[in-house]
Design goal:
The structure holds two protein chains of two kinds.
Chain A lengths: L1 H13 L7 H5 L39 E2 L5 H8 L5 H9 L1 E4 L3 E5 L5 E4 L1 H11 L6 H4 L1 E2 L7 E2 L5 E9 L1 H9 L4 H23 L4 E8 L4 E10 L1 E7 L2 H4 L3 H4 L11 E6 L13 E2 L9 E6 L10 H26 L10 H26 L1 H18 L3 H7 L2 H19 L12 H18 L4 H11 L7 H19 L4 H7 L4 H11 L5 H10 L8 H41 L12 E6 L3 E3 L2 E3 L2 E3 H10 L25 E6 L11 E3 L4 E9 L17 E5 H10 L4 H9 L2
Parallel strand pairs in A: 12-20
Antiparallel strand pairs in A: 1-14, 2-3, 2-7, 3-4, 4-11, 5-10, 6-10, 7-9, 8-9, 10-11, 13-14, 13-19, 15-16, 17-18, 18-21, 19-20, 20-21
Chain B lengths: L1 H15 L4 E4 L10 H9 L1 E4 L2 E5 L5 E4 L1 H12 L1 H6 L1 E2 L7 E2 L5 E9 L15 E7 L4 E10 L1 E7 L2 H4 L16 E6 L13 E2 L9 E6 L6 E6 L4 E2 L2 E2 L6 H10 L10 H5 L11 E5 L8 E3 L4 E10 L6 E6 H10 L4 H9 L5
Parallel strand pairs in B: 12-19
Antiparallel strand pairs in B: 1-14, 2-3, 2-7, 3-4, 4-11, 5-10, 6-10, 7-9, 8-9, 10-11, 13-14, 13-18, 15-16, 17-20, 18-19, 19-20
Helix pairs in contact in B: 8-9
Classes of the chains: A alpha+beta, B alpha+beta.
Chain lengths: 727, 346
């Protein structure tokens, strides 16, 4: 399920890294900012063709991911003529759920029925699959509640209350010197506050998290009701949930039935009786209707400085794109061949190409003429306001320069860290990845700091990578060595020590053919027997590489901490001037986003706000000779009896969403379900940096499609009646 | 795996790079030098007032693009009738479109060093002398004009112009029309030179050929059915009639994407999964041109050029889609059967 895991991470806004472990590679640093001139980037896009005088700052450039303690009552009245109050927002909040660690969901019946995406449910479906079954492929439906299957290690969280704890967290960090130390103390304090609240509550269903908002400019204690007993109720076939597959991911028009149902039970297995669920809209939404998304978006990057964005545009993203492109090129010739480990290769290829799709979309957004100009204009306005006040100016005036200098320091480091892009992830040689894990595991063990559980966790991760054929390994190792040579220089002592005077080709060949790390089971044996003291040919290589790698990481971590503290101050400056009218960047905490059902111009014509089941069949027939990605499960190949093909299947709206919003309900003014968010279109990728609803759209499954298939295709009368009875 | 396809396409486009292109019939490329094949390809094509048409039965039936005929039909029956579309339910009901003239190139001769008058004996033909190779060679082309061209079927402007959008693909249009050539004695023109009608689905990368007659010079071109990156994904090798219904309902069953009532009423009579439109790499040589297979079977009819400012592609209506529309929408079984039998049923 690596591919699914990656997908979730992509949707969770982690697109830059194919697996989470890559995050540590990408974001480390402490050292004082190195103040030295650095060569300007050589990308042709350096310097916008449009400058800040040519653009207008949009009222919602920073997005519409509202928090529930600052609900946009006035805006809803102004824009939609909608009268809302705290009771309305409480209902909006209580129906919503955070699903596991990367998705959103909602309660849709008074008996605790939960709706989320199929792609959010893949791990759970695999988990409850029994011997001889293939539930991912064939789907699942529990015709009676006794047939619902409990999912191991899955919980959902319902947000009960929010309380600001900024003063307490900041207070703890105030006296601490050093960026890394201060960040550390703040995090400890936040953990302590959460633990203390849970201790006082003395209730296993109460879960408290202190959420960091505005990069630590604010902290808030979020108290959740956590449900631990979650059972799978219904899931369509994967072909329906992921219709169009990787090619159609991040696109619209779309025809996916990306839905699944679960149910929460009390700890004693009794059924819930709630009235906080959302009601179902039988009529669905129409073009122009206001619609609302409640869910937990993962990450956006809209409140940093222009210098940070430029660094992202000119260095960080191009570096990642290039690294992934090199690996994609290695794998491409192996696609479609009946080679050993074909599945592993294809999973890896698709993971990489999907990451590339997301990253290139983001990069294109940053290179767009107007995006950075708009951000520049907003920053110029903010600085102008700051300098009107002596106290604000003296307190925050230096921020922009300080953040700019960190970018210069990062530039000077990127050459070195570029050599390690995606090392330790599943986007490269498994031999080198395992070697890195082996090194880390041995070092942790040797130093004696790590607990048994922590060691076990590392061991588990180390074992989670699929094997690749030796010839692919050799090419991937070769790519890494070239990157090292390019980054460190051919004369670098580490590199020379590592190659021992051999050519890169011969080192790569020697590792690929001679290392036991080619195979995960042989690696497992080595790990137990003492990897670093073995005579495996990968040991001298990783002994040379790992110290450099961890140093680079620490450096990046240090930059990251300093940046975070400065960004927190920037947020406070903004609060001082604009008040709380600007919502914080996404942080996988519950948000409310308003929007409208609306099509958009695309491909020289107009993308309609809705698609229908006719379109599903259009794609099934149209692509049948070239691909299996648009294939239908057997029961769907002929249109099911009783299902009107004109039923709306997917729809688009202008709501502000990002990865993590997967599974969020799409609600009408009466807070009834009209859809289920599952993706954004290709034009929405750059919304990570600046929200725009010109052509960016959120993509949902239509509530009418869900009801129609439950009734006419899956014979899920029990669910239909339950949902209808919960009005 | 869609990827497998892309790899295959990249590969095939390299292999075929040298076989794609356009040539005049008097100078065909080496790989298309089969004289019989060339003659058959040429004789199946008609020139029709700036457009092309293709003979598709032994009884003079020919197919072209709806846009090539709409004005001619309007001149005879008026705008509103032409816009609504027409179908002649019987042979006797086919509507004369004079002064519309169709022309077929019946002969082409290299007459360098000869007197052209010696080759211009048939007064029923029109002759054109063309200089080639810096006027060192001369070719004489003989055209047979058909002055009795009658309308068999013209779909409504709504169906043929479905969506009213311009120059895009994926597209869903039933942009075709049928005419019949008549001999001077008023009977259908009997011929051996026609293309067979293909019911097979167009496939990605498939090589197809087109003959057109722009400025009284017949051109042969070879190209391929194209699948290409679009909108973050890839285009399908063809669209289907399902997609047309999808757009009708997706756009709210009104405005430019609204289908005529008879289409909705008769959808069950259609093979909805049948291919409707496909994209061919390169420019359209002429609207109404038939795209034919290596076996000279009609795969589709060119109706619009796309790709302003980008890669050029020629959008065509698929032969298989036309067949199901003939039966399902127009009850034009006599035409569908004629296409299958390649002649009028006795």
């Amino acid at each position: 399920m690596r591919q699914a895991a990656l997908l979730l991470l992509l949707l969770a806004g982690c697109a830059p890294e194919p697996v989470e472990t890559a995050r540590i590679v990408e974001r480390p640093a402490a050292m004082e900012a190195i103040r030295q001139p650095v060569a300007e980037p050589t990308t042709p896009d350096d310097g916008p063709a449009v400058d800040r005088f040519d653009v207008d700052v949009g009222r919602f450039d920073s997005g519409k991911m509202w928090t529930f303690d600052e609900p946009p009552l006035d805006w809803l009245k102004e824009e939609y003529g909608l009268d809302t109050d705290s009771a309305w927002f409480a209902r909006a909040r209580l129906g919503a759920l955070r699903f596991g660690t990367s998705c959103s969901a909602s309660f849709v019946s008074s008996s605790g029925l939960i709706m989320t995406n199929h792609h959010c449910a893949r791990d759970a479906i695999s988990d409850v699959t029994e011997e001889g079954e293939d539930l991912l492929e064939n789907g699942f439906y529990a015709a009676a509640s006794s047939q619902e299957r409990r999912v191991k290690d899955l919980h959902v969280d319902q947000l009960l209350s929010i309380e600001d704890v900024t003063a307490s967290v900041h207070g703890a960090g105030r006296a601490v010197r050093g960026d890394n130390e201060r960040v550390q103390v703040r995090r400890s304090k936040a953990d302590e506050i959460a633990r203390e609240r849970m201790r006082v509550a003395d209730d296993s269903t109460i879960h408290v998290e202190v959420v960091e908002l505005f990069s630590g400019g604010r902290y808030a204690a979020y108290t959740f009701r956590r449900h631990h007993d979650i059972r799978l109720v219904m899931a369509p076939e994967k072909l329906m949930g992921y219709f169009g597959g990787d090619p159609d991911n991040f696109t619209y028009p779309r025809y996916a039935l990306d839905v699944s149902f679960f149910r929460a039970y009390h700890a004693d297995s009794s059924q819930l009786a709630i009235d906080t669920h959302y009601r179902w809209s039988a009529a669905g939404a129409a073009v122009g209707d206001p619609v609302f998304v409640v869910g937990s978006p993962g990450t956006t990057n809209r409140l940093g400085t222009v210098s940070q964005l430029e660094y992202e545009r000119d260095f960080e993203l191009p570096r990642r794109v290039e690294a992934l492109q090199r690996r994609e090129e290695v794998l491409r010739p192996f696609m479609g061949l009946d080679a050993p480990q074909t599945d592993a290769l294809e999973n890896m290829y698709f993971s990489i190409s999907n990451s590339l799709k997301a990253l290139t979309g983001q990069l294109a957004g940053l290179r767009n003429d107007t995006l950075i100009a708009q951000r520049s204009a907003a920053e110029y306005n903010l600085r102008g306001e700051l300098f009107k006040s002596d106290s604000l100016s003296s307190r925050y005036g230096q921020l922009f320069q300080d953040l700019g200098e960190i970018q210069l320091s990062k530039r000077s480091e990127i050459q070195r860290s570029a050599a390690f892009a995606f090392l330790g992830t599943d986007a490269g040689s498994r031999i080198l990845t395992r070697a890195l894990y082996g090194y880390y595991y041995a070092t942790m063990k040797q130093r004696g700091f790590a607990s048994e559980e922590e060691l076990e966790e590392v061991r588990k991760q180390a074992m989670s990578f699929e094997n690749l054929p030796a010839d692919v390994e050799q090419m991937l190792i070769r790519v890494r060595l070239e990157e090292l040579q390019q980054s460190l220089g051919a004369l670098d002592p580490t590199l020379r020590g590592l190659t021992g005077g051999e050519s890169l080709d011969s080192v790569a060949a020697r590792l690929a053919t001679g290392s036991a790390l080619l195979d995960s089971s042989r690696f497992a044996v080595l790990l137990e027997e003492g990897y670093l003291s073995s005579d495996d040919p990968s040991v001298p290589v990783i002994n040379a590489l790992a110290p450099l790698f961890f140093t680079a990481q620490q450096q990046n971590q240090s930059f990251g901490n300093r940046e975070e503290l400065l960004e927190g101050q920037l947020a406070q400056a903004r609060l001082a001037i604009y008040g709380s009218s600007i919502p914080p960047d996404a942080s996988f905490s519950l948000r409310f986003a308003d929007g409208v059902v609306r099509g958009y111009p695309y491909n020289g014509t107009w993308a309609p706000a809705f698609t229908t089941f006719f379109g599903l069949y259009d794609h099934y027939h149209a692509y049948r000779d070239v691909s299996t990605e648009w294939d239908l499960p057997p029961r769907w190949r002929l249109p099911p009896e009783g299902l009107p093909l004109s039923t709306p299947l997917n729809l688009v709206s202008t709501n502000d969403i990002t990865g993590g919003n997967s599974g969020s309900p799409l609600l009408n003014e009466d807070l009834e379900i009209v859809g289920l968010i599952f993706d954004g279109n290709i034009e929405s990728l750059s919304n990570v940096y600046l929200f725009s609803d010109r052509v960016a759209r959120a993509v949902s499954v239509d509530s009418r499609a869900i009801m129609a298939v439950l009734r006419h295709v899956y014979d899920a009368d029990r669910l239909v009646e339950e949902i209808n009875a919960s009005q | 795996m869609w990827l497998t396809l892309c790899v295959a396409l990249v590969f095939s486009s390299k292999v075929h790079a040298q076989i794609y292109g356009s040539w005049t019939y008097d100078a065909p490329p080496d790989h298309l030098a089969d004289v019989t094949w060339l003659e058959n390809a040429r004789l199946g094509t008609l020139q029709l007032s700036g457009c092309a048409a293709a003979l598709v039965s032994a009884d003079g039936l020919a197919v072209t693009s709806a846009s090539c005929l709409r004005a001619s039909v309007a001149r005879i029956v008026g705008d509103s009738a032409a816009t609504a579309g027409m179908y002649a339910q019987s042979l006797a009901g086919e509507i004369a479109l004079a002064p519309l003239v169709a022309r077929q190139i019946v002969d082409m001769t290299d007459i360098t060093g000869q007197d052209e008058a010696d080759h211009m004996a048939d007064y029923t033909l029109e002759y054109h002398l063309l200089a080639r190779d810096d006027s060192t060679r001369f070719w004489l082309y003989a055209f047979r004009p058909f002055r009795d061209v009658r309308l068999v079927l013209l779909p409504s402007a709504m169906a043929a112009g479905f969506g009213q959008d311009r120059a895009v693909f994926p597209r869903h249009r039933v942009d075709f029309a049928f005419i019949r050539l008549y001999a001077p004695d008023g009977t259908p023109y009997i011929t051996e030179n026609y293309y067979a009608w293909s019911e097979a689905r167009p496939s990605a990368g498939e090589t197809i050929y087109a003959t057109s007659i722009p400025q009284y010079t017949p051109m042969l071109s070879a190209s391929s059915v194209e699948v290409y990156p679009y909108n973050g994904t890839i285009t399908p090798p063809f669209t289907t009639l399902y997609g047309m219904l999808d757009l009708h309902f997706a756009h709210g069953a009104s405005g430019d994407w609204a289908l005529p009532a008879n289409w909705l009423a008769r959808q069950d009579a259609l093979e909805l999964g049948a291919p409707l439109n496909f994209a061919v790499a390169g420019r359209c040589t002429q609207l109404g041109t038939a795209f034919v297979s290596q076996d000279l079977e009609v795969r589709g009819v060119a109706f619009e050029q796309t790709g302003i400012g980008g890669e050029s592609r020629c959008i065509s209506v698929a032969a298989a889609g036309v067949l199901t529309v003939l039966r399902g929408i127009y009850s034009a079984d006599r035409i569908a059967e004629e296409l299958e039998l390649q002649q009028i049923e006795n």
